[in-house]
Design goal:
4 copies of one chain form a homotetramer. With 240 residues, chain A is an alpha/beta fold. The first copy, chain A, has one domain (5-219): Rossmann fold (3-Layer(aba) Sandwich), CATH 3.40.50. Chain A has helices at 13-16, 18-23, 28-38, 57-61, 79-90, 105-111, 206-219; strands at 5-9, 43-47, 65-69, 94-98, 118-130, 144-154, 164-171, 176-185, 188-193. The N and C termini of chain A lie far apart (40 Å). The model of chain A has no long low-confidence stretch (mean pLDDT 96).
Chain lengths: 240, 240, 240, 240
């Protein structure tokens, strides 16, 4: 069965900043969605300024994997929507958090830490090394992804140690960063992927698109057992 | 330098339930504190019904490791105090979460998941197996800790996979449970330890006390680097 | 593309012990293979007493995932074959190690530890709890798998902590065991799955078959980058 | 009780290469030992060309933590000595593997993988970032260790994912590397630390010495339970 993706975007930079609109005239979400459609997924988009940020109960119920890009307006995302997204993740929905989404309410809530980092916006070369070549998210990738121009994010990145660390970035200015981080939370999976500053054409890059498409497949829900969380249970009957 | 411990207890069951008061006449905190004093730590206690729950800025600043027992009144812990405890943990304070503290605000916030489990209160035998005998928390322990009477907690326990899983419990009624779970969050360390229902004399048990004392030593703050979280940084000067 | 499975079996107990032959008249491998064929995989089998143990270069080259059952004759497996299997795993082939295969040359070599455990063969009830319900290997399973009669394996199991711990067993006699353990080694994936003593009909159990089929899918090779291991490399050309 | 350290060194480069002898006139081991003595540990040294490579049963029995530097003569280390060192690690001895020790028999055997990497010896700046500031091995360190001249080691480093990843290196030429890697194997602990090419004065660096001294403390044996590995056990007596 096809994995249904919802691409969520804050969508504010594109409206307020000509430099961003020049790169993403129809919004960052349109370009991420385009990449995922090319990969064969049924995709819809949702943005902050739609009612309920476009994430109605119906939309969430029909979403297998949600991608999240936000930056300047994390505080405008309603707590009620974050509650619902968190619940869906814990019940199995995949979540792909992109770039400045590291400070989104949903990501910091799922991590339990500040998720702060150091940064520099200086048109700087990034090289994303694949440190786990056998991981499903590494499929079809070269041993490193070269992005000629990106914003720098540097360690210390205040996250829990990833369950699986798939990628580490090198920046010309002297820093490193854990760029591809896998987590299981509840019955759901979360992948954080670093690149994607709004002024660079990162989401047009074929390898970046490949990573996001692979991550969607990796994060898709699994029809595993649904444990009776919080239940007061009886002893198992005599077993032999 | 001595590791300064604060033993926090909700302290309500002991006042309301004669059966609990019979086991812990001066409160659960008094018995946990007694064990830690015997292990050589300077210890103070704090309880829910003190001003600021006994966790003033001064107390938190003077606490290296905080132990947490709560059950019936998680909702009465103020968010402001939880904010401060979380911040201290991320800045390096150790946190030992005991038994029903799995549903405390501070633990669920640091985990990002529901932390729910299944349970049964039936005077039931628990055997806590040490699965990592080389871990500092295993020091001085036998290969299993036998508790003749305890409440059962069973999997699925809805937590992130521990960074280190040190103990797994067996229950006579048929369940297993990840009973000794280590996490790093920010610069701090968190240890969840399962046993300790309020109607059983668990915190008088020598091995249980040994676990808590070992966990305090493991969770003590480390004088590591203090990274400039959130800083906009310049490229490193030319390095060679 | 279909995942090609080779089911390897020592195959000695079945020839020497009527009680085993009664349960597995055509060998344990025949029954494991039957389960995997029903799950849709192309399957071949190989056994210890075939030339090169049935694992010729051609067979290994055509194997995406290898399952391994052995017990009484680990020492009869040639080091040359173990070398080749290890190399294939590190290059991406999946490996599913079953039950007493914990002491096989290939598993202990990939783990680097003794892989010893404690045990008891006493017709004993085992209950395998799924502790990670969102893991691909948990697909389609109930929250616990009940096996009325099995051999007991108990902790301490001397393995490296699994990258992902999916299942924990409860035994009626008082022990627990890490029963479903995922590892990445090189570009390959390894899954250890506990049950399967030769005198019990474990590999006819629908849930046990489901686990093995799921594990094959999880362990299948990924077409990721092939890193230039051991290479003396030049600095990357000027990048911006 | 003091942690007794044995510093092991191949000791061949120093005898054969004037450039190395100029940096380490009394051998790399002498300088590593000097740093550890300054940190307060009782230290002895051992080298390849001594009888039994200096690692007699008595020396191993009196060693709590062993540090290992080797490069050009890994193949000359006898398998019998490697067997004994592995056994001691699994029984609790700490092991600190330095730089080119990544290809030593003892490290590759404990890892189960090739431990290969890519490399370049080009007088190149390395910056070792601390990604886990709360880890005991990070105590007293700055947020990054700057080494003006070192050999480059680059990913993919073919190791199992570390149990804890404490450090990541940046190299001027464009690579990254997992530089500080913690493992538990058996009841013992293993730390791999990247820097230390024989032609650079790395082991005189105060921060490098601090890392090694911290790692010794972290890797020291714990007096935990000694599990009955391989035992055929009886059911636990009736427990309640």
């Amino acid at each position: 069965m096809a994995i249904r993706v919802t691409v969520w975007n804050e969508g504010r930079h594109e409206k307020m900043d000509a430099a961003v609109a020049a790169v993403y005239p129809h919004g960052i979400h349109a370009v991420i969605a385009e990449g995922l459609k090319e990969a064969g997924y049924p995709v819809r988009t949702a943005t902050l300024d739609e009612p309920e940020h476009g994430l109605t109960d119906k939309v969430l119920a029909e979403t297998d994997v949600l991608t999240w890009w936000g930056h300047m307006a994390h505080g405008d995302v309603s707590d009620a929507v974050v509650d619902k997204v968190q619940k869906r993740v814990l019940n199995g929905m995949g979540l792909i958090v992109l770039h400045s989404g590291h400070l989104s309410k949903i990501f910091t809530r799922l991590m339990g830490t500040t998720c702060l980092l150091k940064w520099r916006d200086a048109n700087e070369n990034e090289r994303i090394w694949i440190v786990e070549p056998g991981h499903p998210i590494a499929e079809g990738l070269p041993e490193a992804i070269n992005l000629p121009k990106e914003e720098m994010y540097g360690e210390r990145f205040d996250i829990p140690a990833p369950d699986e660390l798939v990628m580490v970035s090198w920046f010309k200015g002297g820093e490193v960063f854990r760029s591809g981080c896998c987590y299981k939370r509840g019955s759901g999976k979360v992948f954080y992927f670093r690149p994607g500053h709004e002024t660079y054409p990162t989401y047009y890059d074929a390898n970046v698109r490949r990573v996001i498409a692979n991550a969607v497949r990796w994060a898709a829900p699994v029809a595993g057992p649904v444990p009776p969380l919080g239940a007061n249970v009886q002893p198992l009957e005599k077993l032999d």
